[in-house]
Amino acid sequence: MKNNKTKTTKTILFASLIAALILPFSGMDFAEAKKSDDKYDKISEKLDREIKKFVEQSEKFSFDSEKMKKENVKLDKKIAELGVSHKTELKNSLVDLLGDKFTTLSDEQKDQMVTYIINEKFKKPLKDKFRNDNAEIKGVVFAGIEILPVANAACNVPVISQFKQLDFDINGVPLIFHGQNDLLSVSKTSISSCLKQYELTFADEDHPVPGVDQAYDAWRITEYGTIQDVEIFYVSENYIFFTGGPGTGSGSQGFLTPVPIHYNTSQGIASSVYVSNTWNHMMGTHNTNTGDTLTTWIM
Questions:
Q1: Less crowded by CB within 10 Å, the N or C end of the chain?
Q2: Containing domain of residue 137, as a range?
Q3: Which residues pair with 187 in a beta bridge?
Q4: How far apart are alpha carbons 111 and 109 in whole angstroms?
Q5: How far apart are CA 10 and CA 204, in angstroms?
Q6: Residue 148 phi/psi, 5° resolution?
Q7: pTM as predicted
Q8: pLDDT tens-digit profile of 51-81?
Q9: Strand ranges (DSSP E) for 69-126?
Q10: Quick one: CA torsion of 189, 191, 196, 200, rounded to 10 degrees?
């Protein structure tokens, strides 16, 4: 079990070694990774416009489980449509942007890469919509999964302090999987008296196939300027909501799922959250990787 002291030490070590940890397999330096490419910029901006329009026209975000499921279906359909309509153009732009880090991937892995990028591009507009749709949440009570407005509601929101991460994700496997994707920090913010937001920051999120991970990291450095991964969930009196725009729920998916789906889900309160059910840190209150050893972070 790792306590706050251990976590703080790891955070300091990470800060001092960040240059060495960036793109550990590729050897790409930061300046090279940040090079802009006109072809990629054009398709990227086109995707951003289409995604923003789709998100703005979608239904108001709801914590209701059935509505979540319907929105998940619509989102998956739109991601698939964009993957088909822009696949060739996006692939061609990635050849120029990432070079042999992309061209050496198999055709299947290239298709997966396109899906990753489209998924990632939904994150910010969906988070913005979530915040806007729920800006009025003040003093609410969760009865089942329905939100009932109550004046000056007194809620007893439990504190989640145990976060379980696969040792495979932390320590890696020599010559196969880099690891070092430690959970660095957890920040807890009161949205209202009855709803708390948890924001988790990981050192990285590594795809389990090293070659794919090199391309994925190179793209993330170009797009975000960091390889750190930030995920969010919400806690009420009785439920944990793995949502916040793009879902953070893992469903039944395991760590080695090549392209994990971001599920919007709600689950009953539990004392622990499994934060690495999938390699990109989709979460749940149940372990989907039984038989693998875990580290418990207390935060």
A1: N
A2: 4-18+29-298
A3: 199
A4: 5
A5: 13
A6: -115, 120
A7: 0.80
A8: 999 998 888 887 888 888 888 888 889 999 9
A9: none
A10: -50
